[in-house]
Design a protein that fits this description.
This protein has about 180 residues and is mostly helical. The protein has one domain. It is about 40% helix and about 5% strand. The chain contains six helices and two strands. The chain has a two-stranded antiparallel ribbon.
């Protein structure tokens, strides 16, 4: 009996790891403090710690979460509108604190100045702004390749050459390991 009781917390923790992350339905507000924003950030509970390999997000901890306000029908008033991403970008105080936490959780070595807290699904193609399941510590030395893909996908969406969902799936598939 005591063996079953000891295993229950472990099973519950593992079950929680497989749960789908919720969408980031509300933008970060100026009134929320970094501590309030981080209070809802889950600690990584995977059997193996998450890692960033070759500047790519670990899909177990960073599956990429979408902004529900960005749909194919709303792209012209959201992601394709000049300056829109600036209206939803989380404050640096939030992303800097999250970067430090994720660097510890993911076992990333080195100085935080060598990393940027990056959106797996970029804001420019409808990624969730502040959901930690859409953010990861990316080595800045490897950021250019991902940024080029982000720009290409954004242009393809806004020019009508690619559907929003296709671009989002491309980023999720191509920028995780």
């Amino acid at each position: 009996m005591s063996r079953r009781v000891l295993c229950l917390p472990m099973l519950l923790a593992l079950a929680a790891c497989g749960a789908a992350p919720a969408a980031d339905a509300s933008p970060v507000t100026a009134r929320a403090t970094p501590a309030q924003l981080l209070s809802a950030v889950p600690t990584v509970l995977a059997a193996e710690p998450c890692r960033v390999v070759d500047a790519r997000a670990d899909v177990r901890c960073t599956p990429g979460v979408l902004n529900p306000k960005v749909t194919q029908d709303t792209i012209h008033i959201t992601i394709c509108a000049p300056g829109w991403t600036d209206t939803v970008r989380p404050p640096v105080s939030y992303t800097a604190a999250l970067k430090l936490q994720q660097m510890r959780d993911f076992g990333e070595p080195g100085s935080p100045v060598n990393y940027k807290e990056d959106h797996l699904v970029p804001l420019s193609i409808g990624g969730a702004p502040s959901d930690p399941h859409n953010l990861f510590p990316q080595p800045t030395a490897k950021a250019t390749e991902k940024e080029e893909l982000e720009d290409h996908l954004h242009q393809a969406i806004c020019s009508g050459q690619m559907a929003l969902t296709t671009a989002q799936a491309t980023m999720r598939h191509n920028w995780t390991h």
